[in-house]
Amino acid sequence: MNRLLLSAVGVSLTLSGASAVAQTVDLQRLYLDSLENNPILASAALEMDSARKGSDIIDGQYRPQVDVGAQYGALRNDWTTMNETDGQGAEVFVSVGQNIFNDQLNRASTIAEQQHELSKISYNYALATMQMSVVNGYFNALKAQEKQKQVKATKQAIGEHLVQVKHRLSNGLVPENDVKETQAQYDLAETAVIFSQNELEKALDYLYELTGREYAQVASLSTNLPQISIPQPNGRISWQELAQTDSQQMAIQRQLVELSREQIALAQAGHMPTIGLVAEYRYAFSTQSRSNAPQQTKGSFQDLDNNATVFAGVAMSLPAYRGGATGNRVEQANIQYQQALELQSHTWRQVARKVRSAEKDLVTLKSAQSAYQQAVISAQSALKATEQGLEIGTRTIVDVLDSTRQLYSAKEQLTAAQIDFLVANLQLHFLAGVLDDESLNTINRLLDV
């Protein structure tokens, strides 16, 4: 009895756990789940923390540098060929240094600050990239889900035709070939359902990659989807102008150019002197010494007075010659600066091309939605007319099956165009650097949640 009870409890917990994990998700919930548990975004956050620590490390070199040490040892000196002197003792010391002028340190500090700023921009870009990954993953799953819905509807419609044709055959109204043709189309529709299920499961697996959670399905588009206009940039002449100033990709490249410019200054600082304050305190104690004549028994050690030494002053170091290494570093930094400028130009061309492509996609998809809406209406009318023609003998079952497939294909294409329009809308915001939580919330309100 206890074993049966435990088994029942185990099954209950398993089912409840599965229902808690596998669930229907909307775009906003998927984004929040990904925000909580996305390794790439977490890595970008850690990189930002690391860069801040790098800046703190440089700042620490502006503060006094203190070293403490101790040593103990023995000494033997041969003053002449006739005698020798042995000694032993201990010493402790404290040394303090303080930078007054160090141009290399100043430049390194500036670079560390710029690297920290770069890590912030990179984090924002990682966040925006994650948002687009969520968008693409969600709507790819939705397209697969809608495709499965349409192929199932196609299968059901062909199945109904198959029942009707078999009934007509039994009454001698249609030839047996019509039944075979309808059965073949039904089998193909069943195969399409199997493949669509596979595509849907793979699309949902990508959502697991984003969040580490399982989902059974995604929320569909609202049946009363409003007309959505092509977005316009706020207060700017064009999306390209907005992208040039606000795009995270361009911000990263601008920061890399600034870093390269500062690297030149760092290399040039290798010619500059360094000036600092130095102070040292040494205390020798337990010092002993003895002198030994040849062929005589060594005497005992004699204690020496403890000795304290204090030094304080200013130290300067000037790199007079480094074998040409400093000049070569300057030249190398200049080359890397030119390289950064070229990469910045290349990145802008990529961003500009993608912005123009997204704008063209929006215009095309806007027109395509209207065309597909009309295609659905026409396909519905054509199917109705074909079914009526079948009743009076002017059309065949093959014509009816073709019209059925055309109707559900038009519905699938309409839904795909609506989804692609929303994705292109968000893609344009992403490229311009203005994709944010509200952008996703606006699209989420168009879902049936």
TrEMBL record:
GO terms for molecular function: efflux transmembrane transporter activity; porin activity. InterPro entries: OMP_efflux, T1SS_OMP_TolC, TolC-like. It is found in: Cell outer membrane. Gene3D superfamilies: Outer membrane efflux proteins (OEP) (1.20.1600.10). The keyword Signal applies. The keyword Metal-binding does not apply. Keywords: Cell outer membrane, Membrane, Signal, Transmembrane, Transmembrane beta strand, Transport. GO terms for cellular component: cell outer membrane; efflux pump complex. Residues 1-22 form the signal peptide. Belongs to the outer membrane factor (OMF) (TC 1.B.17) family. NCBIfam families: type_I_sec_TolC (TIGR01844). This is Outer membrane protein. It comes from Vibrio crassostreae.
